[in-house]
């Protein structure tokens, strides 16, 4: 995500709509999860298959778990109509937006209705979905913790005449729950090219959007190729690309819904936004964050990689402009303040309530890597980031893992930069 789009976002409304209350567990049963799982449930999710009917606003979710037993799923925005497994209909309880089913022994099938949401927390009036950071329970039964990766299958029926639905039919690599999305609109599709590694890159724009879409994606194939060559193979299939979406007044930027990431209509001409969202295929989505405190591992790394890729494919003038703009964004973020770019702890914070969703993790993170590159060489750091990706691909990791890896691989101790860039409170 590019965070400049927070402008105009109604935080109060977003928080008011938050249905998750992880502190509450009304089941007084010591076998109900051992508290050590990455996710919010006693068992982690392995696969999520959704059959969605937009005409009736209903869906069927088939959830496979890593092991079977007592299951908790976030369903805060859903109206559940049936819960069953291979033994038939199952008794269940819904408390505080959580669905409880005990002794599940096969994939759990949940039939439900969902609603349109207007605060960037589900299916939006513009026809696309956004469930970051923890609003997946407004679209499908889920665990919102990004560490609990899931594969996806998605089928969408009931698309209005004259519109198309853009979504991945399958995502075969484990991904964070907030990665899944669809977009419905009057789209025009264009293929931009295929990378040497074989990934076909596309862009989809809305009526009147071609000029901006072409401008913003003019180097996207080269940028994507740079990621594939320097970081490693893309994890989410052989097709990927940018999709223009209508988020609403004041929202700006993009969201890492790989393989068809979303870019707000007003940002479609911005190359940095396309490059940033594409980079999430490697960090944030490809390597998931283990804790919300590790947000900088997603956003700082992708902000740096977008600048680096555009610098390589665009040359010195592009490089100078991107970093000048980043410096302006950093100055504004410091002025505004917020949580440190990398807070201490693991899942002790609420990313929105505790003000970690500012531009500080993005820009302090980008400049952290830039400072490391100054010390060790940009191409050396490229190699380090690539080997980190390959070591942690489709798994959760922490920013501490990255800091330790940089030191182990280069001999450069980044702890002073960690303090001045990432741990510092503004
Ligand atoms: Zn991002």
Strand order of the largest sheet: 5-4-8-2-1-11-13
Gross morphology = globular
User: What's the gyration radius in Å?
Assistant: 21 Å
What's the story with the biggest beta sheet? 7 strands, mixed
Number of helices: 10
Overall pLDDT: 91
Task: Give the domain tally.
Answer: 3
Structure explained in plain terms:
With about 425 residues, this protein is an alpha+beta fold. It contains ten helices and 21 strands. The longest helix is centred in the C-terminal third of the chain and has 21 residues, at about 315-335. The chain starts with 10 loop residues before the first helix and ends with a helix. It binds zinc ion. Zinc ion binds near residues 1, 276, 299 and 302.
Describe, in short, the structure shown:
With 426 residues, the chain is α+β, with helices and mostly antiparallel strands.
Characteristic terms for this protein:
Neutral Protease, domain 2; 426 residues; binds zinc ion; 10 helices; single chain; alpha+beta; Immunoglobulin-like; 7-stranded mixed sheet
Write the layout of secondary structure elements.
Elements: H1 11-17, E1 45-53, E2 58-65, E3 71-74, E4 79-85, E5 88-89, E6 93-95, E7 98-101, E8 108-113, E9 122-123, E10 129-130, E11 150-157, E12 164-166, E13 170-175, E14 183-185, E15 188-194, E16 200-205, H2 210-216, H3 220-230, E17 239-245, E18 254-255, E19 260-264, H4 271-279, E20 288-289, H5 295-314, H6 316-336, H7 360-376, H8 378-392, E21 396-397, H9 399-410, H10 415-423
Parallel strand pairs: 1-11, 16-17, 17-19, 20-21
Antiparallel strand pairs: 1-2, 2-8, 3-7, 4-5, 4-8, 6-7, 9-10, 11-13, 12-14, 15-16, 18-19
Helix pairs in contact: 3-4, 3-5, 4-5, 5-6, 5-7, 6-7, 7-8, 7-10, 8-9
Bound molecules: zinc ion (ZN).
Zinc ion binds near residues 280 and 299.
């Amino acid at each position: 995500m590019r965070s400049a789009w927070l402008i105009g976002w109604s935080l109060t409304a977003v928080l008011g709509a938050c249905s998750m209350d992880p502190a509450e567990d009304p089941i007084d049963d010591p076998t109900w999860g051992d508290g050590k799982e990455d996710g919010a449930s006693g068992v982690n999710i392995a696969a999520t298959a959704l059959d969605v009917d937009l005409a009736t606003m209903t869906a069927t979710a088939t959830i496979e778990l890593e092991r079977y037993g007592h299951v908790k799923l976030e369903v805060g925005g859903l109206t559940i109509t049936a819960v069953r497994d291979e033994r038939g209909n199952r008794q269940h309880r819904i408390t505080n937006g959580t669905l409880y089913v005990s002794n599940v022994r096969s994939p759990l099938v949940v039939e439900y209705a969902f609603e349109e949401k207007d605060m960037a927390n589900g299916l939006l009036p513009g026809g696309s979905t956004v469930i970051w950071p923890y609003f997946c329970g407004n679209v499908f039964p889920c665990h919102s913790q990004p560490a609990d990766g899931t594969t996806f299958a998605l089928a969408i029926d009931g698309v209005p005449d004259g519109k198309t639905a853009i979504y991945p039919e399958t995502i075969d690599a484990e991904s964070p729950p907030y990665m899944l999305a669809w977009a419905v609109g009057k789209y025009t599709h264009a293929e931009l090219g295929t990378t040497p590694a074989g990934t076909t890159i596309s862009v989809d724009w809305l009526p009147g959007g071609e000029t901006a879409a072409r401008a913003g994606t003019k180097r996207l194939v080269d940028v994507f190729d740079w990621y594939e060559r320097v970081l490693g193979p893309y994890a989410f299939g052989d097709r990927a690309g940018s999709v223009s979406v209508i988020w609403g007044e004041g929202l700006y930027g993009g969201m890492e819904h790989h393989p068809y990431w979303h870019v707000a209509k007003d940002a479609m001409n911005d190359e940095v936004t396309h490059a940033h969202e594409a980079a999430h295929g490697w960090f944030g989505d490809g390597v998931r964050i283990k804790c919300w405190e590790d947000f900088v591992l997603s956003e700082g790394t992708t902000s740096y990689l977008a600048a680096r890729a555009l610098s390589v494919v665009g040359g010195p003038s592009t490089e100078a402009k991107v970093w000048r703009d980043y410096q302006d964004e950093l100055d504004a973020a410091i002025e505004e303040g917020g949580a440190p770019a990398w807070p201490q702890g693991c899942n002790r914070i609420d990313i929105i309530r505790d003000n970690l969703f500012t531009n500080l993790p993005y820009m302090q993170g980008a400049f952290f890597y830039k400072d490391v590159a100054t010390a060790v060489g940009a191409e050396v750091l490229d190699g380090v980031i690539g080997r980190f990706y390959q070591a942690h691909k489709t798994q959760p990791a922490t920013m501490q893992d990255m800091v330790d890896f940089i030191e182990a691989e280069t001999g450069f101790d980044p702890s002073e930069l960690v303090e001045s860039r990432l741990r510092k409170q503004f």
